C-alpha cells in the first residue's frame, strides 16, 4: 500500500485534488475533520488539554474551539503545546484508519499542516497543491466570506509554498489553466509504475 500525503495552503485547492483522488477509488483521510472529532472524543487529548489549559476548555462535553483558537493565536508556545498533544493521537488514528483499508493499493491523507506536523514520516509520497496567491485569496473570499487582510494573515502564518514544494515529491498546479485531472492521473501512474 502506498500512502500519499496531500498538502497546500488555504485556498490552494487541496480539497479538490482529494476529491479527484476519491474518484480514482482512493480513500482519503481528512486530517482536519478527524482532529476535530478526536478533540471531542479522545480521553487522552481531553485529559492533556485540560491539564495544560484548564477544564473550561471543554463545554457541554465538547472542546470549545473558539477558546482554543484564542489560546494559540499568535502564541507559539501554546500552539506547540497543543500540537504536541493532538498530533501524536491523530497519527495513531491515521495508522489505525490505514490498517482498515488494506484492500486499497493507495490511500491518502489530506493535511494542511502535513510538514509542520511531521506527518510526512507516515506517508510514502507527498503532493503540494500550488495556486497563485491572488487566486487563493479570491477563492477564500468567495468560500468563507473573509476579508483580504484576514486571509493574508492566515497565509502568512502557514509554511510558505516554496518550502512545501521543496519538501514534496510532486506538485499540482491549480491555476485554472492546468488540468487537475491530468496532473493527478500522471502522479498516480508514476507511483503505481515506478521505473
From the structure above, extract its key features.
about 200 residues; alpha/beta; Rossmann fold; 2 domains; five-stranded parallel β-sheet; two-stranded antiparallel sheet; globular
Can I get a quick summary?
The protein has 195 residues and is α/β, with parallel strands linked by helices. It is built from nine helices and seven strands, in the order βαβααββααββαααβα. The longest helix has 24 residues, at 76-99.
Describe the structure.
54% of the residues lie in helices and 14% in strands. It starts with a strand and ends with a helix. The mean pLDDT is 91. By secondary structure, the chain is of the alpha/beta class. It has 2 domains: 1-27 and 106-195, Rossmann fold (3-Layer(aba) Sandwich), CATH 3.40.50; 32-100, P-loop containing nucleotide triphosphate hydrolases (Rossmann fold). A 5-stranded parallel β-sheet has the order 2-5-1-6-7, with helices on both faces. A two-stranded antiparallel sheet has the order 3-4. It is globular, with a radius of gyration of 17 Å. Strand 3 (58-59) and strand 4 form a beta hairpin.
Overall CATH architecture of the largest domain = 3-Layer(aba) Sandwich
Find the count of extended strands (DSSP E, 2+ residues).
7
The overall average pLDDT, rounded, is 91
What spatial order of strands do you see in the largest sheet?
Answer: 2-5-1-6-7
Report the uncertain regions. none
Relevant CATH superfamily of the largest domain: P-loop containing nucleotide triphosphate hydrolases
Question: Major sheet, described briefly?
Answer: 5 strands, parallel
Number of helices: 9
C-alpha Rg, in Å? 17 Å
- The CATH class label of the largest domain is Alpha Beta
Structural class: alpha/beta
Beta-strand content estimate: 5-15%
- Report the CATH topology name of the largest domain: Rossmann fold
State the order of secondary-structure elements, H for helix, E for strand.
Answer: EHEHHEEHHEEHHHEH
Q: Which overall shape is indicated by the principal axes computed on the Cα atoms? A: globular
Relative helix content: 40-55%
The termini sit apart by 17 Å
Count of domain modules: 2
Amino acid at each position: 500500500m502506498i500512502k500519499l500525503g496531500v498538502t497546500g495552503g488555504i485556498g490552494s485547492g487541496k480539497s479538490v485534488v482529494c476529491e479527484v483522488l476519491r474518484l480514482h477509488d482512493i480513500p482519503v483521510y481528512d486530517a482536519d475533520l478527524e482532529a476535530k472529532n478526536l478533540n471531542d472524543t479522545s480521553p487522552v487529548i481531553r485529559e492533556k488539554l485540560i491539564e495544560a489549559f484548564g477544564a473550561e476548555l471543554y463545554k457541554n462535553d465538547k472542546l470549545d474551539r473558539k477558546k482554543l483558537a484564542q489560546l494559540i493565536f499568535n502564541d507559539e508556545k501554546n500552539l506547540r503545546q497543543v500540537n504536541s498533544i493532538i498530533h501524536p493521537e491523530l497519527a495513531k488514528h491515521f495508522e489505525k484508519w490505514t490498517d482498515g483499508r488494506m484492500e486499497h493499493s493507495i490511500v491518502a491523507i489530506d493535511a494542511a499542516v502535513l510538514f509542520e506536523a511531521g506527518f510526512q514520516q507516515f506517508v510514502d509520497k507527498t503532493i503540494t497543491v500550488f495556486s497563485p496567491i491572488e487566486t487563493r485569496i479570491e477563492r477564500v473570499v468567495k468560500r468563507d466570506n473573509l476579508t483580504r487582510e484576514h486571509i493574508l494573515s492566515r497565509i502568512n502564518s502557514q509554511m510558505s509554498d516554496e518550502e512545501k514544494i521543496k519538501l514534496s515529491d510532486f506538485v499540482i498546479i491549480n491555476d485554472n489553466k492546468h488540468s487537475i485531472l491530468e496532473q493527478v492521473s500522471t502522479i498516480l501512474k508514476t507511483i503505481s509504475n515506478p521505473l
